[in-house]
Amino acid sequence: MIRVENLQKTFAGAKGEVRALRGVSFEIDKGQLFTLLGPSGCGKTTTLRCIAGLEQPLAGEISVHERVVFSSASGVFIAPEQRRIGMVFQSYAIWPHMTVAQNVAYPLPSGLSRGEISARVEKILSRLGLGELADRLAPNLSGGQQQRVALARALVAEPQVLLLDEPLSNLDAKLREQMRFELKTLHESLNITTVYVTHDQEEALALSDRIGLMHEGALIEVGAPMELYTRPAHRITADFLGSANFISATVERDGNQPWDEMLLSSALGKFTALRSPEWQPGMAASLFFRPENVEVLNGGEVSTIEPNHGSALVERATFLGNSADLILRCGDIALRVRAHPARVPAAGERVRFCVAPQSCIVFPA
Amino acid sequence: MAGRGIAQTTFRITLPIMRPALLAALIYFIIVVIESFDIPGLLGFTARIRVLSTAIYWATHSEVGLPDYGLASALGTIILAAALLLMWIYQRLTAHQERFATITGKGYRPRQVNLAGWTGAATAFCLGYIFIAVVLPFVMLLWTSVQPFYAVPSADSLARVSFEGYFNIWRDRSVVRAMWNTTVLALVTSVATILLAILVSWFVVRRRRTGSGLANYLATVSFLPQCVPSIVIGLAFIFVYVRFPIPIYGTLWIIALALTTRYLAFSSRATTSALMQVHGELEEASQMSGAQWTKTLRRITMPLLAPAMINVFLWVAVHAMQELSMAIMLYNPDTVVVSTMIWSMWQNGRTADAAVLGVMLIFLSALLLLSAQALSYFRGRAQQ
């Protein structure tokens, strides 16, 4: 397992110091695949490099499998080569002057016999489907093959932890999907504690046991993919994962009873949402729901003023094959809606829509 | 395009644009000339023409009386100050080059000027220059080396041509020693220089981003010897190492050390730019594979830098073989090298022997450069 506690790091920038990490803490259970997700510059790669030992943090503590590898309090800094961590770099960093087999054999301890080394290299190469490429020089490999070699090299010495820094970002879309699947299978069979860094939310959602969402040097929220996507606790998470509609609203009833729902009023009408504490009537809030949770109903005008229902003008409709993207106009508000492709309303049409209360989340305005 | 002729274009546009570059080149060559020792030393010896650099030499190697180190250091300080000042101007001139780099933008194509009737003259000028500066001296050197004594080419002297000089010269024990010393010097200097250069550039390139002030400091310090004339380095080495606790003075090692100091500037520049082409993740991958930094340097960084290293190695080796101004300040009969041998032969009137050694030195350098060409050619083939 990996434990990161109150990690801080600054970089010397052109205009003074840049705070790259502002007290990041998390824990990863043994065998889990943990993803650090966020836009570029959010500090995810810096966090990864701190775990690797390639960056020295300003403050905090990192331990890997019960061994403290960095601690500012007790002045511990274990060099990266002594941390027994395998890492795949974004550029793959395959050594171009060595063959595939030489690249992969490099991390093995020098005490091993020649036979043992070639046996272990062969084993990991065949496992990653690189058996025939052993004698190939690195520059003569395709992107996907280089990626596999980098993985083989990171795994051959059987490290306790595997770090992956945007490993799929240099591959084309088709290959990326295939490698994503292979990574998942590989992780399931090896069960090695893995930290995965990416800015691609699909990758994060598909691969991870848990995701840590980072923003401007801080870890915003940690959770399982489904939990983070459907019930984000922070507006930043809601905004970054998937697409979002935010509507400004006012709290009308806070729902003191556990079974109650909150009632809010907005320019779109009244909405009920799942109750959350700390709300008082009259407070300004931001109502969040996802485009795919908006249901477009048949028939024009809203007759009764029912909560979570509204009517709007279709401003734009884009057919995407397996779905359709709509922009619904309702006064100043433009709603993003993902509709079923079977019945795509035409632009200029007036439609009714509704959003289920359990899909509505309220954030501070 | 604005209706101006070629002459006007040249004087009003081209020359002003090129002015900083031309000035920089001019200043650079002034520095080279000021610090040059071998040519004024050899040619000015008989004519008794002294320039600053040779004056330093003669102050310490007086034909009559004791060496005057006070005079030498005074002259050394003057030449050093001049060189530093010029270097500073040179740096200022080349610092803002980007401002003038627009001419290499898109669609840039050199324009061919029709020289009309001048074509012949221009060709003659270029060929004439090559002939006078390169071919003629070398032919004369060859000619002198196959003559028993210095003689102007004639039918008479043609009859005396013999390669005996190339065999007889080996009877001189000190020539053998000089050859051996030169080989050792070239090898030791180039290996030491390349290792130091890689260490320096590694610190400069890889440690700079962690904000270490030491790296910037190192970059400046290692480049400083570039501004110091060789003869001054030689002089300084006498002063420093004559009383140095390690008995290095009077050995070949002190010459190697002086040469290494001098060549480190150029070499570390070359390896620095080469190292910047090597992605940092390649070294980090080695670290993550459990390798100590020494193993990383040996198995990853050095092999990746091999092409640049071979070039620097040869550059240093060839220069070390031919270097005179530092060696002459620091050598003694035991540590004589080929260049100082030629120098003393010339002074003692052994022109034919000097020419023989000169030809051999040129061929040795050429051989070294050719073998490097061949090596990089075959390396390139092997990679495919």
List keywords for this structure.
heterodimer, A: 365 residues, alpha+beta, 6-stranded mixed sheet, 5-stranded antiparallel sheet, B: 384 residues, mainly alpha, globular
Approximately how much helix is present in the residues of chain A? 10-25%
Q: Kindly, what is the distance between the CA atoms of the first and last residues of chain B, rounded to a whole number of angstroms?
A: 48 Å
Uncertain segments of chain B are 97-110
**Which sequence of strands runs across the widest sheet of chain A?**
7-8-9-3-10-11
Give the largest chain-chain interface (CB within 8 Å): A-B, 28 and 19 residues
Rg of Cα set of chain A:
25 Å
What percent strand of chain B?
under 5%
Radius of gyration of chain B, taken over Cα atoms and rounded to an integer in Å: 24 Å
* Count of runs of 4 or more consecutive helical residues of chain B: 17
Instruction: Report the structural category of chain A.
Output: alpha+beta
Q: How far apart lie the N and C ends of chain A?
A: 37 Å
Q: Can you offer a commentary on this structure?
A:
The complex is a heterodimer of chains A (365) and B (384). Chain A has 365 residues and is an alpha+beta fold. The mean pLDDT of chain A is 89. In chain A, a hairpin with a 2-residue loop joins strand 13 (262-266) and strand 14. Chain A has helices spanning 44-52, 100-105, 114-127, 143-155, 173-190, 201-207, 225-230, 235-240, and strands at 2-13, 16-28, 33-37, 59-64, 67-71, 76-77, 85-88, 161-165, 193-198, 210-215, 218-223, 245-253, 262-266, 269-273, 284-289, 294-297, 309-319, 324-330, 333-339, 350-355, 361-364. Helices cover 22% and strands 37% of the residues of chain A. A six-stranded mixed sheet of chain A has the order 7-8-9-3-10-11, sandwiched between helices. In chain A, strands 2-1-4-5-6 form a five-stranded antiparallel sheet, with helices on one face. A five-stranded antiparallel sheet of chain A has the order 14-13-12-15-21, with no helix packed on it. Chain A has eight helices and 21 strands. In chain B, 32% of the residues are buried. Chain B has 384 residues and is mainly alpha-helical. Helix content of chain B is 74%, strand content 0%. Chain B has 17 helices and no strands. At the A-B interface, strand 7 and helix 4 of A face helix 12 and helix 13 of B.
